Amino acid sequence: MFDVRMSRVALSACLAAAACGDGDTPPADGAPIVDGPALQPLPDLRFKWVGASPVLVQNSITNLGFFRDTGMAQIHDQMEFAWTPLELTLDGLIPGHYDWQIADFTPQESIEPFRATAKAGPIAALDQDLAGEGVVVSIDLHADAYAFTTARPQAGAPDYATTSFELPRGELDARIATEAGLGSVVTALSASPTTAGNVRAYAASRDGDSTAYEIEVRDVTAANAFANATALADAGYIITAFGRVGDDAAIMVGTRAPGAAARTVTLQTTPELDAGDAVVAWLFATPNDLVIVQR
């Protein structure tokens, strides 16, 4: 069994001396300071921005790549952009050469700045590159490479504590349920890069949240992923984790607070986000990708 407690994400509220006030700079001519609109708080980053307010607008679609031991990174730091989960390929993979599409999105209104990271690299660098990046939004692990997207508050509040664990598939549901009962939400998972048949999962708790969450875990394929997402949403679950675990094999995790109302999902071929929408799963497919959007 593999179990790692990652370092707590706790950043200083003052990133620099100029940031230690209320953010307003007096005009040079001595005119009165006029406050701008209040910053909207970040949503709970463990729930993929599903149903988040203010309205989110997609900015662009780009990609991460890994080729011949070299990956790439795209980082939004002290900004208002977030990354979707990775586009996952479930079969036909070529070792040493991987590609993942991702999209970023931004709110229509000003929101507290945060850090969002999308990165790919050699598997040996995973722990070092993931350390301190906060909530793992999505992850894809191979014997030779990794890719992930993450998010964390820029000012360190609220604080998220992240956890990773690796288990055989048959032990996974019970562990996810235990984490959820303690208020820790599984946000990403993937096949183990080192042990066949094992699944590595990443979870996060949030300061001030003691909810005993309920979970449902489903084994899915490309053919039935949307049907499973619909069933989970109908039962009030938000899809908080979706990951590749084998050839045409993935795991989908739904998380809900007790008494949660039903939600809706739609199937798209490219991310198109309306009010309250968020991408919760993205699969490469031909002739068109399968993008599952929940609100």
Core attributes:
disordered N terminus, single chain, 295 residues, 4-stranded antiparallel beta sheet, mainly beta
Low-confidence stretches are 1-27
SSE string, helix = H, strand = E?
Answer: EEEEEEHEEEHEEEHEEEEE
User: What overall form do the CA principal axes indicate?
Assistant: globular
Arithmetic mean pLDDT: 87
Strand content: 35-45%
Domain count: 1
What's the end-to-end separation, in Å? Answer: 35 Å
Order of strands in the sheet with the most strands?
1-9-11-10
- Let me know the number of strands: 17
Q: Outline the biggest β-sheet.
A: 4 strands, antiparallel
Count of DSSP-assigned helices? 3
Please estimate the helix content.
under 10%
Rg, Å, rounded: 19 Å
Helix and strand content put the structural class at mainly beta
Task: Summarize the topology.
Blueprint: E1 2-5, E2 56-67, E3 73-79, E4 82-83, E5 97-107, E6 114-122, H1 126-130, E7 135-141, E8 145-153, E9 160-168, H2 169-181, E10 185-191, E11 198-206, E12 214-220, H3 225-234, E13 238-246, E14 249-256, E15 265-268, E16 278-283, E17 290-294
Antiparallel strand pairs: 1-9, 2-5, 3-6, 4-5, 6-8, 7-8, 9-11, 10-11, 12-14, 13-14, 15-17, 16-17
